[in-house]
Design brief:
The complex is a heterodimer of chains A (about 500) and B (about 475). Chain A is an alpha+beta fold and about 500 residues long. In chain A, about 35% of the residues lie in helices and about 25% in strands. The chains are: A alpha+beta (about 500), B alpha/beta (about 475). Chain A: It holds the Pfam family E3_binding.
């Protein structure tokens, strides 16, 4: 029978990987665990082993090709194996392949993992408080690697596992490398490096008395402050590390949902008058850092255009009751999303990312469109995944759903990651044109002004028409002004003639 | 519904007010659930009324009498007279105080108390028949039911409990006079506790046991220590003999036993106590009505949340399976109440300690050395004999030992077996160690009070580490 082999999930959060080299050719006989390909994740090259003994039947991806995780990359002819549902067997192999891929990279690390896990004889060694916490967080405590004496699982280990940080322990070579890169790439919102906010949880830490006093003042446990320094073989922590960690902790806490209720701002009276001091931290600072990074990394150019949308207004008015009958609230946003995706398909360079390290432009063939939402806590950008595959009402529901979650702060991190292009609707509050800041590392963002009647000249006469002002900011490193203008022209055409969207 | 019934509704219906049921009811009520507790007999269940508490009361009485009478070596000369009726009324006072306390606690926590016998009448409904003629019945509709009906002593054929000649453990705990001679059928923990107690009160006790040793389920050296002491107290053991019949004889009984080979023996005594174990009470609950079927031993299978095969019906304590121990019932009761209230609770106890109140006492928790090896550990064992403990010698109770079992690789404490004075108390430290995932280092480096028995635990741990001070290292 034929056995399909899908590209396994080679690292947390990684959605695709590049096939570097095929180590086998069609017709080759392979044995189980024999490496068949080298796959490059963001930082590591991983060997992908064959799941079976058999013959290579087909190779379905080219060297150098970026392949989404889960795509079949190779098939094998396996003799004497009973026919079974291909899908299932492939899935089974997937899991094995993940483990194999990981073990291929770092067998030594796996041994470490075993030593570090307090699970033996069917028991996981952990205090009842840690076990309860695991249940609270929905963590299988048996899967947590312990950092306590003898490998006992501590509450901190459970929390780390729940936050995904635990992966660094068992599978450092692949997972930590890739997850860090994807975190940075997909979540520009993270200001402080994740590691500095993470508690180190040592048993013993050396520090100068002054540092200890600062730790006390900052309410920080010295054992939790990350450091690479040692004295006499023991971890050594400096004052600045304590302050940095305390700051990171505060930022992390502020980002928590509970922290929405901020402490009352301080006010002070200067010679000129009363000044209110509000801590620049938490989500505000995270947004600030992301904006700063984008503005000073990507040279922004903003292209403006006004588009007449009489037909769009009429179409939406017609369809709104129909949508309501189907329990959907139809705003203009789904139309804009449809039009944007259609325009991106015609001008793919706007759906891209610059991989500065590799000096390569990544043009994305998938369409995850971020829609900026103003929330009490600040700007958030939930992402409508696979916007090209969704119909109008699904898009409407997705946007409404994500926006609600963002406002309620119940949105998951993954739901704000992986965007390829963003839209910001500043017109909802009021305004014509603006300079949207690119949601880095994306390379373009579309700003929508207020949709309202404005004077338009038609056949020499000034008439009132519904128009939308468009502001498209581009990363001028990759996208030229002409590209931007062409994209906006296409987009305008779709918005002017929404029936064209029927063809999309 | 039967005509004349009144019907009420409740979030949580608990059947049985023993240590599993009343704890579940109080906890559920604390968590804001409307809770109804049905009890047909007495608050506190077997534990308070017919088990743990009365037996420990009598054991203390017997110890006091026996201790006083045997303290010549300490220079104390006494000839105590035992007034069994007075001892019983003291014991009853203790029991009454505790059962009254349970009732008060339930009320203070807002638990609705209903007296009567509960029987399932269908999905979500229980009928409670109130005691006595014409007392009527009521139907209670529940969202969640917790079965906590406990267990009853097992009868053996031909030995029906009349509590006159043939005593159950309950009857044995209620005797107004000390029998001169007693035959005890069964050398399990209940048989051994009561044999020792009556031996100390001056009864000539003969134990017949079908198996070939006392305290099956405990390691040989533990069972041997306890049996040896019982023999010193005058208890006579006959192993490999099963009780086959009894007949009245003079004012007492004559018990016939039979070996596997068919050899018979007879033992005459005032009374015969049958203590061959307990079986869960699940046959009177009308479980058919909700489609719930106990296993062949009468137990209800439950998952880690205490839920049975039927949704929203939970079981705790003896009905939920071995070990049949009050503290296990209470622990399960709390978990189930929290589960019903939506708390992240589950029964993931690593070990449930057990105690036997013989002389000397036994306290065990977690794995034995053999069990640890079976589970894939490389066990290391440390031991401290009680005769090396200063406190044990000053108590004049030098028999026994503390043994700790740990994993040699990680040092995790996996279990412990203690036989000796206050073993039931001492085992708590090892239970905590097992539950916490503590290592030998953790326990051994904890400073223990001197002069106490608890030092023996520390010493056993240090012995396992190879650096005991007060004993020779293994």
């Amino acid at each position: 029978m034929v056995r399909e082999f899908k590209l396994p999930d080679v690292g947390e959060g990684l959605t695709e990987a590049e096939i570097v080299t095929w180590l086998v050719e069609v017709g080759d006989t392979v044995t189980e665990d024999q490496p068949v390909a080298e796959v490059e994740t963001d930082k590591a090259v991983v060997e992908v082993p064959s799941p079976v003994n058999g013959t290579v039947r087909e190779i379905l991806a080219d060297e150098g090709e970026m392949v989404p995780v889960g795509n079949v990359i190779i098939t094998f002819d396996v003799e004497g194996e009973e026919a079974e549902p291909v899908e299932e067997s492939a899935d089974d192999e997937d899991d094995e392949a993940v483990e194999d891929a990981v073990s291929a990279v770092s067998e030594a690390d796996e041994e470490d993992e075993n030593e570090g896990t307090a699970q033996q004889g069917g028991r996981t060694f952990a205090a009842p408080s840690a076990r309860r916490l695991a249940r609270e967080l929905g963590v299988d405590i048996g899967a947590v690697s312990g950092s306590g004496p003898g490998g006992r699982v501590t509450e901190q280990d459970v929390r780390a596992h729940a936050e995904g940080a635990d992966d660094e322990e068992p599978e450092p070579a692949v997972k930590s490398a890739t997850s860090k890169v994807t975190d940075e790439a997909e979540e520009p919102a993270t200001s402080a490096p994740a590691s500095s906010a993470e508690a180190a949880g040592r048993d013993r830490t050396l520090a100068a008395p002054a540092t200890r006093r600062v730790a006390e003042e900052e309410g920080v446990a010295l054992d939790d402050v990350p450091t690479d320094e040692t004295r006499d073989g023991e971890a050594f922590v400096t004052e600045s590390q304590v302050r940095e960690y305390a700051e990171a902790q505060r930022a992390a806490q502020a980002a928590d949902a509970e922290a929405v209720t901020e402490e009352a701002p301080e006010t002070e009276t200067t010679a000129e008058g009363e000044v209110e001091r509000i801590a620049y931290k938490g989500v505000r600072r995270t947004i600030g850092n992301a904006m700063e990074r984008s503005k000073y990394t990507a040279p922004h150019v903003t292209h403006h255009e006004e588009v007449v949308v009489e037909d769009l207004v009429a179409t939406r008015e017609r369809l709104k009751p129909v949508a309501e009958e189907r329990d959907s609230r139809l705003t203009y946003m789904p139309f804009v999303l449809k039009a944007v995706v259609a325009a991106l398909k015609e001008h793919p360079i706007l759906n891209s990312q610059l991989d500065e390290d590799a000096e390569e432009i990544l043009v994305k063939h998938y369409y995850n469109i971020g829609v900026a939402v103003a929330t009490d806590a600040g700007l958030m950008v939930p992402v409508v995944k696979g916007a090209d595959e969704k119909d109008m009402l699904t898009l409407a529901d997705d946007v409404n759903d994500l926006a609600t979650k963002a406002r309620e702060r119940s949105i998951k991190r993954e739901e704000m990651q992986g965007g390829t292009f963003s839209i910001t609707n500043f017109g909802a509050v009021g305004g014509e044109y603006a300079t949207p800041i690119i949601n880095y590392p994306e390379t373009a963002i579309l700003g929508l002004g207020a949709l309202k009647q404005r004077p338009v000249v038609e056949d020499g006469e000034v008439v009132a028409k519904h128009t939308i002002p468009l502001s498209l900011s581009i990363d001028h490193r990759i996208i030229d002004g002409a590209d931007a203008a062409r994209f906006v022209n296409t987009l305008s055409e779709y918005l002017e003639n929404p029936e064209l969207l029927l063809l999309e | 519904m039967v005509v004349g019934d009144i019907s009420t509704g409740t979030d949580v219906l608990v059947v049985g007010a023993g240590p599993g049921g009343y704890v579940a009811a109080i906890r559920a009520s604390q968590l804001g659930l409307d809770t109804t507790l049905v009890e047909k007999d007495a608050y506190g269940g077997v534990c308070l009324n017919r088990g743990c508490i009365p037996s420990k009361a009598l054991i203390t009485g017997a110890d006091t009498a026996h201790g006083a009478a045997n303290a010549e070596a300490m220079g104390v000369h006494a000839d105590p007279a035992v007034d069994m009726a007075a001892m019983q009324s003291w014991k009853d006072g203790v029991v009454d105080q505790l059962t009254g306390g349970v009732e008060k606690l339930c009320k203070a926590n807002g638990v609705n108390l209903v007296e009567g016998t509960a029987e399932f009448a269908g999905e979500g409904r229980v009928r409670v028949a109130h005691g006595g003629e014409g007392q009527g019945s009521e139907t209670i509709e529940y969202e969640h039911a917790i079965i906590a009906t406990g267990s009853r002593p097992i009868q053996i054929p031909g030995f029906e409990f009349d509590e006159e000649h043939v005593l159950s453990s309950q009857g044995a705990l209620s005797l107004d006079t000390v029998p001169d001679e007693l035959v005890v059928v069964g050398a399990g923990y209940i048989g051994m506790e009561l044999s020792t107690t009556y031996a100390k009160l001056g009864t000539d006790v003969t134990v017949v046991e079908m198996l070939d040793s006392a305290l099956p389920g405990y390691e040989d050296d533990i069972a041997r220590t306890v049996r040896k002491r019982a023999e010193e107290l005058g208890v006579e053991f006959h192993f490999g003999e099963g009780a086959s019949e009894w007949e009245p004889h003079n004012d007492g009984v004559r018990v016939t036993t039979e070996t596997e080979d068919g050899e018979t023996s007879t033992y005459a005594a005032d009374k015969v106590l049958v203590a061959v174990g307990r079986s869960p009470v699940t046959d009177t609950l009308g479980l058919d009505a909700i489609g719930l079927e106990p296993d062949e031993n009468g137990f209800l299978a439950t998952d880690e949340f205490g839920e049975t095969a039927v949704d929203d019906v939970y079981a705790v304590g003896d009905v939920a399976g071995e070990p049949m121990l009050a503290h296990k019932a209470s622990a399960e009761g709390e978990v189930v109440a929290e589960v019903i209230a939506g708390e992240p609770a589950a029964m993931d106890f690593q070990a449930i300690p057990a105690a036997v109140f013989t002389d000397p006492e036994i306290g065990t928790v977690g794995m034995t050395e053999a069990e640890a090896a079976d589970a894939g550990f490389d066990p290391v064992v440390g031991k401290m004999p009680m005769n090396a403990s200063g406190r044990a010698l000053t108590l004049s109770e030098p028999e026994g030992f503390v043994r700790v079992v740990a994993d040699s690789e990680t040092g995790f404490v996996l279990g412990g077996q203690i036989v000796g004075p206050e073993a039931s108390e001492l085992v708590a430290e090892l239970a905590l160690a097992v539950e916490m995932g503590a290592t030998l280092e953790d326990v051994g480096s904890t400073v223990h009070t001197h002069p106490t028995l608890s030092e023996a635990v520390m010493e056993a741990v240090k012995n396992a580490q190879g650096h005991a001070i007060h004993t020779l290292n293994r």
